[in-house]
Amino acid sequence: MDLASIRSIRDQLDRLRVQVGESLYLAELAANSIAPPMTPETNPYSVNYLPVHPWGLASRQRLAELEPDLRYIANKLADIWDMTIIWGYRNEAQQTHAYNRGNGLPWPDSNHNVMPSRAVDIARHPLDWDDIAGFDEMIGAAYAIAKEAGIDNMRSGKYFSNRADYAHLELV
Ligand SMILES: [Zn+2]
Fold first, then answer.
1. What's the 6 CA to ligand 1 centre distance in angstroms?
2. Residues 3 and 69 in one domain
3. Which helix (H) or strand (E) holds 121?
4. Which terminus of the chain is more solvent-facing, meaning fewer CB atoms within 10 Å of its CB: N or C?
5. How many domains, the chain?
6. Are residues 108 and 30 part of one domain?
7. How far is the CA of 51 from the centre of ligand 1 (A)?
8. Per-residue pLDDT reduced to its tens digit, 66-122
9. How far is the CA of 12 from the centre of ligand 1 (A)?
10. pLDDT category, 24, cuts 50, 70, 90?
């Protein structure tokens, strides 16, 4: 083998080593460093998020009415428990009906009366209004989820001075 042939083979090997190095680097990135792209199904702010415990049809429709921060909290709660959304937005007739039964404020003063809604009534499924311990767990989880996401304006209706409203979460 003459010197020119040896140098040619060496140059080919150099190029191959570069290609191998690039491929290794890209494979390493794909395996370890790059998070999978966020899709609606993996984004808790999306109405199309797929939580561990899937939403029922009515709950998903109410989920769509919520401010994104509340939707995020609701979706993350549904990663922990099977949840039901009792109310998102309430129109004038619905709010007046609730008010006349002693629930909440007169139209249009409730955070349920804006679209998107700044309040949600949410509970673990199956709904049991007497399960105060269950509501307390849900409320604690909701505060932790909000804090972790940097949502600092959520509060629970549990702390309303006139009447504790355990299912109610709102943005203030
Ligand atoms: Zn409410």
1. 80
2. no
3. strand 119-124
4. N
5. 2
6. no
7. 22
8. 999 999 999 999 999 999 999 999 999 999 999 999 888 999 999 999 999 999 999
9. 71
10. confident
Q: How far apart are CA 8 and CA 69, in angstroms?
A: 62
Residues with CB under 5 A from ligand 1 (ion): 119, 121, 168
| Cα 69 to Cα 122: distance, rounded to the nearest angstrom | 14
Distance 160 CA to ligand 1 centre (A): 11
Element (H, E) at 132: helix 132-148
Look up the domain containing 78 and give its range: 40-171
Query: How much is the average pLDDT of 129-158?
Result: 95
How high is the pLDDT of residue 130? 96
Single-letter amino acid, residue 131: D
Mind giving me the DSSP string for 46-93? Answer: STT---SSPPPHHHHHHHTTB-HHHHHHHHHHHHHS-EEEEES---HH
Which tens digits make up the pLDDT trace of 34-56?
666 788 999 999 999 999 999 99
